[in-house]
Fold this sequence. Notes:
The chain is an alpha/beta fold. The chain contains 9 helices and 8 strands. The strands form 2 sheets. Strands 1, 2, 3, 4, 7 and 8 form a 6-stranded mixed beta sheet that branches. A two-stranded antiparallel sheet has the order 5-6. α4 packs across α6 (122-133). The longest helix has 15 residues, at 83-97. The termini are far apart.
Amino acid sequence: MSGPLGFVLDLLFPPKCVFCGKVLDTGETGLCRRCQRELPWLTGGEAELTGEFFSLCAAPLRYQDKVRDSIRRYKFMGRRGYYKVYGRLVAQCVHDHLAGRYDLITWVPLSPKRKKDRGYDQSFLLASAAALELGEVAVETLRKELDNQPQSGLTEDAQRRANVLGAYTPVDKALVEGKRVLVIDDVVTTGSTLSECARVLRTMGAADVVCAALARAR
């Protein structure tokens, strides 16, 4: 926020780095210079992975230490305002690794119960912010009616795949038919969730599916 009101709010609630909590210095936006230097960035080929039903997934950060703690605050402690900074990072990653490979941006949705409990859909906010940075608009293509067990509570790859099977349903096939779709999520671990979303999108007629996440756990 700019103008007099923004100045007063910055005095009362000075903006802090979303990763370490340090009060930001002049010229710093969203994250401090130290985190900009020291976060576990993924670059080049290590930022990319392939999976079942999607051709490529890219993430700018490794899910560990301050990155993990920050994302947990975002998802479970109500720090929804982090989405703008996260969206900027994801957008840059998409620009670097997925430019020209998608026609449509969407996200991995929460179940209605989980969204009600949390108060917001963190992946929707992230995808919306990233899309805005890229000059696009995120479009709802999938819904999640099944309130299944959180993937974070499962350790085996087979358990994760089974847990999300059939969890997502199409919104409108006409939205994605013949399109190359970019799916955005907050964290990718084994890729099971993204693979299931990609599978459904392909049954809807998507020509290709690529993915982006803020962080990768493996």
